[in-house]
């Protein structure tokens, strides 16, 4: 599958890292082991960044199960406004000011370029072979993207790019003569993303896991949880895992997956949904199954409107649909509905605190929105689960068995441990309520919602 495989040199063994546990992985002990890093939560718990070393330089990169490339912004990159195509100051791209400069291990990949379009924007640049270290494991000559052009996609100065954790078929290298930035979904040359290379080099078993942490509603940054390679994260969870197969989405045209009929997104099926009022009242169950993909780069969950609308009505006071941006605004201190998703043989309920996001200006939005409001999702008959769900489970992404496994978290307030960010006690207290004020500030929300749509999935045709 990977044209680059023969050029990959192989692993150089383990680099110790302060942020990574270095307990070696072994099949006999695989549930306790693996290679872990602590994440940083930014943007009020919407975005999660992991430490990654490229060449000799370390960066925070957005952890994205909804795409497959790892890109880092290069020194002197050009920031382009996404609507007018105007060059704007670099800091308006919102990335960290830590950018990549060519190291001695950098080698240009001849005949290729990088170009990608996410829901949130566009990035492009060169494909390069570089040494990549993640969670204490290193790969020499991994294909990565070094971006010299981007629209604003950073998180106010923490991350410098993105770590793509989906399948090879979604990777977005192109022939070097691909200059049209409106067709980055097509004409792709698939390669193996970093975790696939690590597995082929025998560094890890073929899976990774996520346990995202919950930050207080009004905290812009904090400890973000864990990403573990070839093992499970160090959080308390039920010993019972539910599993679902990773599916090939037939609705996605093959011309965006390098012509391959292959797994691309972490996609599967929700078999039923249960919801009801915060207290009292009976739970309703809708047992019509629907397809989804799981996207750690997306903090809004897009569900069938027949599910999303009644759940938004069950906030107290109810969340209000706002025309024009296809999302729901909600009182920051609203009582939240009960909401569970059945995946495999278990139903996973959301902690109510994960159903409301406070934005920068104090306005709150519901993170459940109707898929039908996004033409593309409607067209493809697909839904998105993301950050809210992931805060309630240990999620295992297994590209060996091609399945996802989920276990309930027992320590649901994981805001106190870890090495990065704030370590205050869990504060389940929405301290301010925006009420009607929120509606006046819609333009900001509009921007947020627009950029949240596939905040990192590549699927606009
Ligand atoms: C896309 O291409 C157009 C036309 O060449 C150019 O003006 C624009 O800056 C490019 N935008 C990005 C984000 O690459
Ligand atoms: C990067 O940003 C930080 C914080 O904003 C600032 O302290 C530092 O001086 C900046 N570094 C460079 C090289 O501009
Ligand atoms: C990385 O390597 C380059 C080239 O060898 C060197 O100029 C630079 O100072 C190094 N950077 C770090 C952070 O070690
Ligand atoms: C980005 O890098 C590519 C080569 O990798 C080059 O062709 C292009 O001109 C550069 N664009 C900008 C805006 O620096
Ligand atoms: C790029 O080059 C290849 C091989 O010469 C050619 O088939 C293809 O049409 C070219 N693509 C573009 C966008 O020019
Ligand atoms: C639930 O599914 C898991 C994973 O497929 C399986 O190991 C377990 O036996 C199932 N439990 C029940 C009660 O069916
Ligand atoms: C990609 O495939 C779809 C469905 O097969 C087709 O409608 C579309 O025109 C194709 N796009 C390109 C750019 O090839
Ligand atoms: C259940 O959800 C489906 C969409 O997944 C919808 O078509 C159907 O109308 C819903 N049923 C009820 C009773 O709400
Ligand atoms: C966890 O959060 C709940 C409220 O959701 C609170 O009642 C409980 O005390 C918290 N537990 C810890 C250990 O902070
Ligand atoms: C967040 O809310 C808590 C509880 O009301 C308050 O103590 C804290 O100062 C607030 N923090 C920020 C950053 O506003």
Characterise this structure.
The protein has six helices and 30 strands. The strands form six sheets. A six-stranded mixed beta barrel has the order 3-4-11-5-10-9. Strands 18-17-23-24 form a four-stranded antiparallel sheet, with no helix packed on it. The model is unreliable at 1-32 and 416-461 (pLDDT under 50). 9% of the residues lie in helices and 35% in strands. 54% of the residues are buried. The chain has helices at 194-200, 305-313, 375-380, 387-390, 437-440, 442-452, and strands at residues 10-14, 35-42, 47-54, 57-64, 71-80, 87-88, 107-108, 112-118, 121-134, 137-150, 161-164, 173-175, 207-212, 222-229, 242-245, 267-270, 272-276, 284-286, 290-294, 301-303, 320-322, 327-329, 338-343, 346-349, 356-358, 364-366, 368-370, 383-385, 393-398, 403-408. It has a domain at 242-410 and 438-454: Acid Proteases (Cathepsin D, subunit A, domain 1, Beta Barrel). The radius of gyration is 21 Å and the shape is globular. By secondary structure, the chain is mostly beta strands. Bound molecules: 2-acetamido-2-deoxy-beta-D-glucopyranose (10 copies). Residues 97, 157 line the site of one 2-acetamido-2-deoxy-beta-D-glucopyranose (NAG).
